[in-house]
Amino acid sequence: MNDFALLPVLAGTLAFFLVGALWYGLIFAKPWQRVAGLTNTQLQVGKMGLIFALTFAFEMLIAMVLWHLLARTDPPPHVVMMMALGFAGGVMIPAIGINYLYLRKPFTLFLIDAGHFLVGMAAMGGVFVWFRG
Q1: In terms of Cα–Cα distance, which of 3, 11, 4 is closest to 128?
Q2: Is the pTM of this model over 0.85?
Q3: N or C: which end of the chain has fewer CB within 10 A?
Q4: What is the DSSP string of the chain?
């Protein structure tokens, strides 16, 4: 397995991105908007294309790092999922938790966003397991 392979990285990124679209656009749209304190007008203002592009770019960076680790360690499928979920639970979720503490963000917002990271990373891990199989 190459240290970097574009197709699985793009597919893993897309999986994470689609989870976000469902998470914030359908499943938790109203609760997230309410606890984030955003009005419909605020959500429609701004450069949404730029926001989506940067989101995809950041998620792709996450995918590249995870893929590189998988390429260097060649773990079995269950360990791939442990690594993906470990990224979420051990790095990403604590990082937003620290930020939310200082920003005085509601715990409900933390739970919604943490859930997104957990499910998004599970989706990415599942895609990587499929590509490696």
Answers
A1: 11
A2: yes
A3: C
A4: --S--HHHHHHHHHHHHHHHHHIIIIISHHHHHHHHT--HHHHHSS-HHHHHHHHHHHHHHHHHHHHHHHHHH---HHHHHHHHHHHIIIIIHHHHHHHHHHHT--HHHHHHHHHHHHHHHHHHHHHHHHHH-
